[in-house]
Amino acid sequence: MKPTLDELRRFYLGDVHELRSYRPGKNSFVEGPDRRLGCYRAPGQRLTLLDVAGSGSVRHLWSTWRENQGNHRLEFFVDGAKKPALTGTLDELIAAAQRTPSPPVVGFIGNKGARNFFLPVPFKRHMRIEMETLEPTWLIFYQIDYRTGENAGSRRREEVELADALSRHGLLPSHVGGYERTITIPANAQADIATLSGPAIARRWRLKTDVNVSAHNLLRLETRYDGAATPAVRSNLADFFGPFRGVSFETDTNTATRVCHLPMPFRRNATFTLANDLPHPVTVTFDADIEPVRKWDDRWGYFHALWQQTPRTTGYRQHQVLYLRGRGHWLGMALYGTGHDHGGGDFVVIDGEGDNPVFLHGINGEDYFTFAWFGRGEHHPFAVAHSNEAGRYRHHFENPYPFHKSFSLYWGAYPDLAPRSVAYWYQDSPEDVTVTDADNPLNADWDCFGPVPLLLDKNHRPVGDLYAVLPGVSDLDAGKQFECRCVSESFVSGWMKQRSIGPMLDLTYLARHGTKIRGEIELGGMGHAFLARRVITSPKARRVTFQLSHDDPLRMRVNGREIYHGGGSNGFVTHRVPVKLDAGDNEVIVQLTNFFNVNFNWAGFALRLLE
User: Fold this and answer.
1) Which fold has domain 22-150?
2) Which one of 105, 260, 413, 533 is least enclosed by Cβ atoms within 10 Å?
3) CA 487/CA 283 separation, integer angstroms
4) How far apart are CA 31 and CA 36, in angstroms?
5) Residue 258 CB-density burial (10 A; 0-12 exposed, 13-18 middle, 19+ buried)
6) Span between the terminal Cα atoms of the chain, in Å
7) Kind and range of the H or E element at 320?
């Protein structure tokens, strides 16, 4: 029997506010004869899906394919073993996991054939996952979420026996007290609707209004903790709760009632403020279940949420969901008004302002939400999807994304849209440490050109100098224009402008300066070249260090001198490159390519000047 929502809440929400400390990872790619070098036209062909060293665990596998056009067998080789510890088709593995003593949700075959496997598969030194095709393959999609560097000294649920975890988190807190208040807020005014005393954890809180939920976009919520000067939660009610009924949120449109089940710990107090932008008063009833605690636990984080909207997308620059600095972990988001999912998807940079960044990139929009082929429905406890316009949410209870320096998540979308999002995360600070896209001092303007198809042989392998297909910088500076081409779409252009996201320059959607890009295949094809140029001004001649992260072949010149030339890798690698800067302006030229690897259809790099 499927667990109830209450049973899922008791298991997954018990310690979601305890800050994690592992390093998340993600492989996302598409396999098919028209997408990569591999052509799976016969059974028995093999591909390595994951090859990662260190201690950790695989947390989530998502895949889909058309019936009779892509079924395959998986083999999990753990810690260098010659024989697989697990083997079977994804359907067989999901069925077997469902028969084991395990977390309430270990996997399911969702609507439109989306396969999701959530049973944790741990490893101490190494994990390799191999795929063997069982039938001619038209197209296989894959996303694999994993983690490494888990802290053996932690008391968190992921590092204890599963049976122990079930008993430890299978019960509600031993004592939960209640709080209730009703208040009327005048038109175009705001008021504190609740002040909770701590130390405590708000386990559940509910808002009921005397106006229909269709007006909740004009009711704005802010929450402050422990006397903080800035709010940790900022969102309108409509998008914070959405139309969802799941583990995290419940909405009853008949009674205009909204419920949040995500735990909110605080040291001294938590104040909920509601601004009423309606032209008439609104009466609000707030009630909460409060778990008193003896003292604040330093492992805990404060619950944060942020609503954002891009008034009009350009197509080539992504919608900002979140950019912040500090320590915590990302839980997930709700997303609205994003249009067709092939417009793009999720791209995460973790600790991009630190020494060892993490890059997590998805395939298409629906895949992030655990669905396939524009599917919708309920995949509890992780995701609920109504539609691309009405709203979807994804919460990473199986694998929150820890960060220590900074965190950014952007969402790709087609032009002329107005997407909205609400980000949810936990952080060690009660203050608002988010950074707006317009005010990020690390953002930089680049001159860019591309994509240009690479010269390939009959086996789709590059021929000669990868960057020979690119025009010269002097020709572009002279105003000359050249053809840019995706797979079938093309346009003529000179320099185009692109602004970095912090230290990250994302060129995945650069072609949308001149094309609409009909489908995701137009984002990359079999390999393209790009050109990027910016100027760094130095007050004097000096030697500095560039921190450079990339996963595709890349070459960099500074003032005409080549300072770096690197090949591709199966995932992002970070390098430190010594550089001599002249006094005044210094021209930085980057030539790069885009190949299919673990970051499907992604083109770009991160560049940070280390002072």
Assistant:
1) Jelly Rolls (2.60.120)
2) 533
3) 56
4) 6
5) buried
6) 58
7) strand 319-325
| CA nearest to 62, candidates 482, 399, 502, 556 | 399
* β-pair type (86-89, 140-148): unpaired
Rounded CA-CA distance 589/118 in Å is 43
User: Do you know the residue count of the chain?
Assistant: 611
Residue 150 contacts residue 97 (beta carbons within 8 Å): no
Average pLDDT of 232-241? 98
Contact between 111 and 375 under an 8 Å Cβ cutoff? The reply is: yes
- DSSP annotation string for 188-221: TEEEEEEEEESSEEEEEEEEEESS-GGGGGGEEE
Dist CA 348 CA 359 (whole Å): 6
* Residue with tokens 């619950």, as numbered in its chain: 303
- The DSSP code for 171 is S
> How confident is the prediction for the chain on average, in pLDDT?
90
Q: Give Cα 388 to chain centroid, integer Å.
A: 17
- At residue 251's C-alpha, the angle toward residues 248 and 257, to 5°, is 120
- Give the three-class secondary structure for 542: strand
The tokens describing 151, both together, are: 């802290």
How far apart are the C-alpha atoms of 52 and 407, rounded to whole Å?
23
State residue 151's pLDDT score: 55
Phi, psi angle pair for 156, to nearest 5°: -75, 160
Which of these CATH numbers, 3.40.50.720, 3.40.50.10490, 2.60.120.1390, 1.20.1440.230, describes 177-297? 2.60.120.1390
pLDDT range class, residue 36, cuts 50, 70, 90: low
DSSP letter (8 states) at residue 18: B
Task: Specify the pTM.
Answer: 0.94
> What tokens appear for 182 in the block?
């009703």
For the record, the structure tokens of 417 come out as 């849209």
CB neighbour class for 377 (10 Å; exposed up to 12, middle 13-18, buried from 19): middle
Q: Please work out, in degrees rounded to the nearest 5, the angle formed at the alpha carbon of residue 442 by the alpha carbons of 503 and 361.
A: 35
DSSP characters for 365-383? HHHHTT--TT--EEETTTE
The amino acid that residue 12 corresponds to is Y
Look at residues 447, 449, 446 and name the one whose alpha carbon lies nearest to residue 492: 449
Please, what sign has the CA dihedral across residues 275, 280, 283, 289? negative
Residues ≥6 apart with Cβ < 8 Å to 167: none
The span from the CA of 386 to the CA of 395, in Å, is 15
177-297 shares the fold of 22-150: yes
Architecture of domain 445-610: Sandwich (2.60)
Q: Going by C-beta distance under 8 Å and a sequence separation of 6 or more, which residues neighbour residue 273?
A: 190, 191, 192, 193, 221, 222, 223, 224, 231
C-alpha angle with apex 491: 486 to 492, nearest 5 degrees?
125
Domain edges within the chain: 22-150, 177-297, 445-610
Query: Rg of the chain's alpha carbons, rounded to an integer?
Result: 25
Q: For 358, what's the count of Cα atoms within 13 Å in the CB-facing half-sphere? A: 24
Residue 68: pLDDT band with limits 50, 70, 90 = confident
**273: pLDDT strictly greater than 70:** yes
Which residue has tokens 């005397």? 210
Residue 46 tokens, joined: 């093999």
C-alpha distance from residue 199 to each of 269, 290, 426, 430 (Å)? 7, 10, 17, 14
